[in-house]
């Protein structure tokens, strides 16, 4: 659940960032390469955020707590 919410939120924000930097109106769709860039950024951010989020429980398991 956290993964999906993080992914969709970051994807939307990356789309807004691309629209802002390219000066594209909010109601206009992005082209395929721009959507791929937004998806790649969202995936990378989600992967980083969730790895940091899941690290403490993993360390406790490995330490035998």
Topology:
Elements: H1 2-22, H2 32-63
Helix pairs in contact: 1-2
What do you see in this structure?
- The chain has one domain.
- 82% of the residues lie in helices and 0% in strands.
- The protein has helices spanning 2-22, 32-63.
- The radius of gyration is 16 Å and the shape is rod-shaped.
Mean pLDDT: 87
> What profile does the largest beta sheet have?
none
Q: In angstroms, what is the radius of gyration?
A: 16 Å
The N- and C-terminal alpha carbons lie at a distance of 26 Å
Features:
65 residues, mainly alpha
How would you briefly describe this protein structure?
The protein has 65 residues and is mostly helical. It is built from two helices and no strands.
């Amino acid at each position: 659940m956290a993964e999906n919410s993080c992914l969709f939120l970051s994807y939307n924000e990356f789309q807004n960032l691309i629209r802002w930097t390219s000066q594209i109106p909010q109601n206009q769709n992005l082209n395929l390469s721009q959507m791929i860039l937004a998806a790649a950024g969202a995936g990378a951010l989600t992967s980083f955020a969730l790895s940091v989020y899941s690290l403490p429980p993993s360390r406790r398991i490995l330490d035998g707590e």
